[in-house]
Amino acid sequence: MQNKISREELVKNYNIEIHFLDSLEECGLIKTFEEERVKYISYEELPNLERFANWHYDLEVNLPGLEIINNLLNKIENLLQENRNLAQYKNYAK
After folding, report:
1. Which among 32, 35, 34 is positioned nearest to 24, based on CA atoms?
2. What Pfam families has UniProt attached to this entry (predicted)?
3. Using CA atoms, how far apart are residues 64 and 67, in angstroms rounded to an integer?
4. Which of 44, 64, 90, 94 is the most exposed place for a label (fewest CB within 10 A)?
5. Of 35, 12, 36, 8, whose CA–CA distance to 22 is shortest?
6. Tell me, what DSSP letter sits at residue 33?
7. For residue 27, what is the DSSP state?
8. Do 7 and 18 form a contact (C-beta atoms < 8 A)?
9. Is the pLDDT of residue 89 over 60?
10. What is d(CA 37, CA 33) in angstroms, rounded to the nearest whole number?
11. How is the chain split into domains, by residue range?
């Protein structure tokens, strides 16, 4: 069984708008799935949802801004991982 929470519970528990969730899903920032005509989000997606909700509601970042910030942070993480791999290879090659 997959740990999941329905969109309706998310709206209630996180005090966010259902339209905001739909927008995040439409632009690919979060993934939902449907079971028996109810949309759910997996618990693994919750940290991303919380981050996007904080940026949107607390910092007033709009949806295009969320996409840009997310893309830049992903690129930074990829570069950091590549740097770690190169450093590990350099140490291995000695």
Report:
1. 32
2. MerR_2 (PF13591)
3. 5
4. 94
5. 8
6. E
7. T
8. yes
9. yes
10. 10
11. 4-93
